[in-house]
Amino acid sequence: MMPMDAIHLIGMDRSDMDGLLANMGEKAFRSKQLWQWVYQKGAVDFSSMTSIAKHMRENLALMATLKRPFIVKDLLSSDGTRKWLLRFADGQEAEMVFIPEVDRGTLCISSQVGCTLTCKFCHTGTQRLVRNLTAEEIVGQVILARDMLGDWASPPIPRKITNIVLMGMGEPLYNYENMAKALKIIMDPEGIAISKRRITLSTSGVVPMMNQCGEELGVNLAVSLHATNNVLRNEIVPLNKKYPIELLMEACRTYPGLNNARRITFEYVMLKGVNDSLTDAKALIKLIQGIPSKVNLIPFNPWPGTIYERSTDEQIHAFAEVVMKAGYPSPVRSPRGEDILAACGQLKSQSLKLKYNDRIAASEGHGC
Questions:
Q1: Does the active-site annotation cover 344?
Q2: Which pTM does this prediction carry?
Q3: Annotated catalytic residue within 95, 137, 171, 267
Q4: Which of 65, 157, 208, 313 is the most exposed place for a label (fewest CB within 10 A)?
Q5: What do you get for the CA distance between the two ends of the chain, in Å?
Q6: For 42, left (φ over 0), alpha (ψ -120 to 50), or beta?
Q7: Structural domains in the chain, sorted by start
Q8: Active-site annotation holder among 122, 213, 252, 344
Q9: Neighbour-count burial of 282, counting CB atoms closer than 10 A to its CB (0-12 exposed, 13-18 middle, 19+ buried)
Q10: C-beta pairs of 231-235 under 8 Å, 24+ apart in sequence
Q11: What is the pLDDT of residue 350?
Q12: Does the structure show a pLDDT above 80 at 155?
């Protein structure tokens, strides 16, 4: 049984771990060893850390924990997609999804419980923000997924999880500090070691944070666009009222490191009779002109209570052809995991924002 005030090693960055071991009176090189056991080898207990002195392992076992999030549900789709509902130490819940493909395995992780935003076509948007996830909880998703998929093999080739997308629950740029700390841990070459080139952050357009994200993290950027004018985008992506399309496009044009080999992905969900006309396609081309980019066309994934319908396959492909002829790759995303509500825009948990006393009670009563 771990102590109530146990130190959580997952989510610690290099500086945190250095400080912990310095306070324990350990030599500096022990920090690197511990880092590799936590993030490179996926240790689940301290007794397995055989290269670390016994006294240090015993001390760590008394004061620290390697606890992962708790799995509430583990659902497998008929197409191989896997969705986990996760519970954190305070009882709040979020979802993550693993999508296996022939040439890659993509893990879709969450950055918030619920969402700051209220995009009208998104199931997650119907769940108001409960709280931000911590760096520990964001990194913990990746570590837990590797546990569940048996992905700690050494040597690490081939990995089952090759790509990470921050496209789960929440707006990552509204949880920037925790998200950035987590991604730096995930990208560290001596740990989880997933390259920034294989990480994509999706934002609905938090314009003031986009440049900092590019400068500091250098990950791929996906922008949830979904409309080509302010009137419609104000309706279906309400964040547009704060950061209208003109500001968003300027932030895209100046995103650090942007070039023909490293493009912005514009995500565009196809809503029948709303944004799927060929006139819309032409307006989209004009809007993104000059930005090294591609357009991901996403057939709308229905969820209980939605007022929207998916565009027909014929209309989606006609739209794609117009965009492609203009010189912008426009792949149509194949819906994955629809039968377990794991597809784009379908994630949601039952977590509600708790009062302070309820949060304390939940934390004390949970075993995470």
A1: yes
A2: 0.90
A3: 95
A4: 157
A5: 11
A6: left
A7: 7-67 (1.10.150.530), 70-340 (3.20.20.70)
A8: 344
A9: middle
A10: 232/274, 232/275, 235/120
A11: 58
A12: no
